[in-house]
Amino acid sequence: MQERFKALFGVNKPVIAMVHLGALPGSPLFDSKNGLHGIIETARSDLEALQTAGVDAVMFGNENDRPYELRVDPASTATAAYVIGQLAKDIKVPFGVNMLWDPIATIALGAATGAQFVREIFTGTYVSDMGHWNPNAGEAMRYRDRLGRSDMLLFYNISAEFAYSLDRRSLSDRARSTVFSSIPDAILVSGQITGEAAPLSDLKAVKDILPNTPVLANTGVKHETVKDVLALADGCIVGSSLKENGDTWKAVDPLRAKDFMEKAKDARGFS
Questions:
Q1: 59 pairs with which residues across the strands?
Q2: What is the pTM of this model?
Q3: What are phi and psi of 199, to 5 degrees?
Q4: How many domains, the chain?
């Protein structure tokens, strides 16, 4: 696991930055006035700001497609693939994708766009804002392999946002079991909602029990906490902290992104 992870990112403790696509057609928040052109150009601007700031990788996601669904409309996945395709020549770092909250749609999007990694909830049983949540890691991984993308890394978020786990085992025990039963390439630890941090104690407990598996902080990493997070984790995924005023729904702020990366590089020894 660690070898594939290290080979992909090529740095110690990578920072993966989110490119939040605008609401896609069919979503209630879709901006019909600016249409697909608006989605593409907004994503292009965010991508440029993030890469200029020096992030190690980016991930394209549909965070704006609220209310969220557990089964994503194929038209949304197709549109996301089109948007990413329009940006392909501008992507200079490793990239991943995530179609909330659908593992199969996420795998399909990753395969279609040439993504090097994907993120989703692949294991567990939850009650959530979207209803009962029961993903199937075996189905998702087999689907990836049938699409000829066994090289595409799978990042398993084991503490779903907007949800409550029905599994009464400790988070660390769930993490250990997930690695044994479902062979992820990395484990992600999250807070309760987008932009909210996971307790450092959760991050430490999971990393302590999985010394040989990449463990990343998935939400809520901030300028003032990135040093503490990277002291424990093998990297982080960050979105809201890089936006204007730290607001998830705003554009990337180039200065905030640059400052975050300076702090992250200092925390990991300038790599």
A1: 18, 96
A2: 0.97
A3: -60, 140
A4: 1
